[in-house]
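Table S2 (text version). Query chain:
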Amino acid sequence: MDEATVIDGVYVLKDKLGQGGMAAVYVAEVDLNRFDYTTLYAYTQVSAESHHKRRQKAEELAGKLRGQKLDLATLRTVLEAQGIPIPGQRVAVKVAIGEIDFPRFEAEWKDLMCLNHDDVVKVYGGGVYMGRPYYSMELLEHIVLPKRIIAEFSIRQKIEAMIQGGKGLAYLHDNGIVHRDVKPDNLVVCEYLPGQFVTKVADLGIAKNLDSSVDLTLSQS
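Corresponding structure-token output:
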């Protein structure tokens, strides 16, 4: 799939951020007037005693909502009022390439869309386009390179970055998801304001949902 491809009339693929054996990730511009908030709404409105059951309930609610005529602007307003992250004008879009395991790819983004934590990359939704599954997620910008962290960060800043990453991983584990590929490249530090930083747990393509009978192992870009 090339740059300038338009997925489902919503995502215009731009620069490629990276590619592995099973997926490619692109920067994409979003047509916010055509983005369907229905699935994101369904996956963030349910609760259950386990993450696996919460996802099942979310899928049931999403199925019911698809058959109704909903005002998308109202759904967006509700999500914003609840403090649930919604896509901006640019996102990252991950597209499966090569031999595709549809259940695993779908499970990857649906498991993450149920979650909402400041230190975990947010997923907004996904689907299938021209036979290839994809999903959109938070675009990490103003990334602080490791060499800058080593050279410029104080001991306190380094510790705070590690604590934030630990909080993100703990949140995933509390929801029955084990990352299984924890390394500096997957704990991304971003400078969201001058001198203010946040660590995001990313690259969950080989995460495992302990509540599910499906092994979510997936080679990541």
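Notes on Table S2: The helical segments are 38-43, 51-66, 72-81, 102-113, 146-152, 155-174. The first strand starts at residue 6 and ends at 7.
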